């Protein structure tokens, strides 16, 4: 069945409870009279409550109504906040430079209002030293405590140790700030057209061994 309401000649009832263009209650009138009023106002007769007895109909510009409803739905989707979990992988004996790089990505994710899954990967004899991974996770949590908190405490998962950080800032707040910053950059670029722009950040991070450490949006933490 169509989700569209019945309008004008598609309405097939003897009488309707009519609502005027400004929301005023006209009362129960014959369908023919309601259609006549719609023509006089150059509007549509739209059935807004089909299950009422008699059905409730309103005089409106149905095309304009549909357009405004679509715009509202689009804006709602635009502002919708999805729970996103980023992932960052570290080795227990990571060197200071790589640690700072990884921490920078975690900081950026938390500022965006996203959760971050931190995975410590143990290899070989490192598996017998879980305290190394635990201390590294604790250090990272302390370094970013102004932006996020430990949502899931460190726990061993096979050869990995996992911790989840949650942002202090809500996703909707981060999205609003990001839009404001983007608008400010556009305004600055328009005012200074010859000024070069910085390249966009990327979610991919090259690890110390030359591999790609992905930080991809997911709806739930990825399995190790």
From TrEMBL:
Q: Which GO terms describe its molecular function?
A: translation initiation factor activity
What domain of life does the UniProt record list for this protein's source?
Bacteria
Residues annotated as domain Translation initiation factor 3 N-terminal = 7-76
Q: Does the keyword Cytoplasm apply?
A: yes
Q: Which UniProt keywords apply?
A: Cytoplasm, Initiation factor, Protein biosynthesis
The UniProt regions of compositional bias labelled Basic and acidic residues, in chain numbering, are 172-189
Note whether Secreted occurs among the keywords. no
* Subcellular localization(s) per the UniProt record: Cytoplasm
Q: What is its main location?
A: cytoplasm
Q: What does this protein do?
A: IF-3 binds to the 30S ribosomal subunit and shifts the equilibrium between 70S ribosomes and their 50S and 30S subunits in favor of the free subunits, thus enhancing the availability of 30S subunits on which protein synthesis initiation begins.
How does the annotation summarize its subunit structure? Answer: Monomer.
According to UniProt, the name of this protein is Translation initiation factor IF-3
Source organism per entry reads Streptomyces tropicalis
Q: Which gene encodes it?
A: infC
């Amino acid at each position: 069945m169509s989700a569209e309401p019945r309008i004008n000649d598609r309405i097939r009832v003897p009488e309707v409870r009519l609502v005027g263009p400004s929301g005023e209650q006209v009362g129960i009138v014959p369908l023919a009279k309601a259609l006549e009023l719609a023509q006089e106002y150059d509007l549509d007769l739209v059935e807004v409550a089909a299950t009422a007895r008699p059905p409730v109909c309103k005089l409106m510009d149905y095309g304009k109504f549909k357009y405004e409803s679509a715009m509202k739905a689009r804006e709602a989707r635009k502002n919708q906040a999805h729970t996103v979990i980023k992932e960052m992988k570290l080795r227990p004996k990571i060197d200071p430079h790589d640690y700072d790089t990884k921490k920078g990505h975690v900081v950026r994710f938390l500022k965006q209002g996203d959760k971050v899954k931190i995975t410590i990967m143990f290899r070989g004899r490192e598996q017998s030293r879980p305290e190394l991974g635990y201390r590294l996770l604790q250090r990272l949590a302390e370094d970013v405590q102004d932006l996020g908190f430990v949502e899931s405490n460190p726990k061993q998962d096979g050869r990995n140790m996992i911790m989840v950080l949650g942002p202090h800032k809500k996703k909707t707040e981060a999205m609003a700030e990001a839009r404001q910053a983007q608008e400010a950059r556009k305004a600055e670029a328009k005012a200074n057209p010859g000024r070069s722009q910085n390249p966009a950040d990327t979610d991919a991070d090259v690890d110390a061994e030359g591999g790609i450490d992905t930080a991809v949006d997911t709806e739930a933490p990825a399995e190790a």
